[in-house]
Amino acid sequence: MTASPHSDPEPVVRFDNVGMRYGRGPEILRDLSFDLPRGSFQFLTGPSGAGKTSLLKLIYLAAKPSRGLISCFGRDVATLPRDELPDLRRRIGVVFQEFRLLNHLSVFDNVSLPLRVAGKKRSEYAEDVAELLAWVGLGDKMSALPPTLSGGEQQRVAIARAVVGQPEILIADEPTGNVDPEMGMRLLRLFAELNKLGTTIVIATHDLQLVRMVDAPVMTLANGHLHIRPPRSQRQREAELREAERRDADDRPTATVPMGPEPSAQDAADDLDDEDPMDAVARAMEMPDEDDTDDGEDRDA
Ligand SMILES: Nc1ncnc2c1ncn2[C@@H]1O[C@H](COP(=O)(O)OP(=O)(O)OP(=O)(O)O)[C@@H](O)[C@H]1O
Ligand SMILES: [Mg+2]
After folding, report:
1. Which residues contact 160 (CB under 8 A, 6 or more apart)?
2. 87 by DSSP, 3-state: which?
């Protein structure tokens, strides 16, 4: 399932002609219409200042649109009673671009926070939190305070905190901006695992390397508008279909000109991606992992 213009009867998030401006400033997002189908995975990209963080804020209900309709979990956010907002927000995990960790709490306590808020006891989650922290390479930093960590370490704490409660939607704003490529891949695997468990995922990133690793739609913001490129597999299927139609047409004795649409500039740009045959995340997830033998199994949260 993919981000798409209104195809899912019950998407987790729906935008219908949404516009957004800050105060009396110009509209920074214009005419956004798309669905996030339940259980889908998509990237959000675009140049700095294009509005990625602003779009994510709309999705995680931290900002309101200036026009248009947004529904989240089937609820129109414009008419949502104030006291219902916290409950909806708890169903969404967010990795903030600037982390937003609580500096006076240990790494362990930061990550446990969503579970404590949900009323769980320490004995119920301590093992899972420790396992998750070990998985993101912070097993020996559980009692550290965030200000004593590097940027990449803080980023991993923020990610662990966002995923620990297995939210229904995960919004991650540049979640690999501060880590090396190897750790970036590892974190991407974590998101893919969460997605397999049913979480709808949106990852804002500048990292095209990361984007190429997953066969997922790419939402691109530019000049306030959103373009959605279907996943590679879908584009390949469509190209094969066009090719088959062209061959059919060629086989017809009366046909003198090739049928089918001319390849557009967009097709040409899209095809560049196809040169990379790797679907490393999918592959990596099938490979046994030397330091995580039960990887791929259910992670109890
Ligand atoms: N709180 C705010 N008040 C006024 N303008 C804002 C505010 N936040 C963002 N903007 C403006 O909105 C536009 C989009 O900003 P946004 O942070 O959404 O971009 P972005 O795509 O996330 O950029 P980056 O890749 O640098 O994180 C920018 O022009 C920015 O200056
Ligand atoms: Mg941003």
Report:
1. 111, 129, 132, 133, 136, 138
2. helix
Give the CA distances from residue 264 to residues 15, 31, 268, 270, in Å, rounded to whole numbers and listed in that order: 27, 24, 6, 10
Pairwise CA distance, residues 152 & 176, whole Å: 8
Using pLDDT thresholds of 50, 70 and 90, give the confidence band for residue 295.
very low
Taking the C-alpha atoms of residue 171 and residue 154, their distance in angstroms, rounded to an integer, is: 17
Task: Say if residues 117 and 87 touch (Cβ distance below 8 Å).
Answer: no
Question: Which atom of ligand 1 has the smallest separation from the CA of 206?
Answer: 25
pLDDT > 90: percent of the chain: 78
Output the CA 176–ligand 1 centroid distance in Å. Answer: 19
Ligand 1 lining (C-beta closer than 6 Å): 22, 25, 28, 46, 48-54, 97
Amino acid identity of 251?
D
Residue type present at position 8? D
What is the residue whose two structure tokens read 């557009």?
264
Residue nearest to atom 18 of ligand 1 (CA): 51
Around ion ligand 2, which residues have CB less than 5 A away? 52-53, 97
**To 10 degrees, the CA torsion angle through 254, 257, 260, 262?**
180
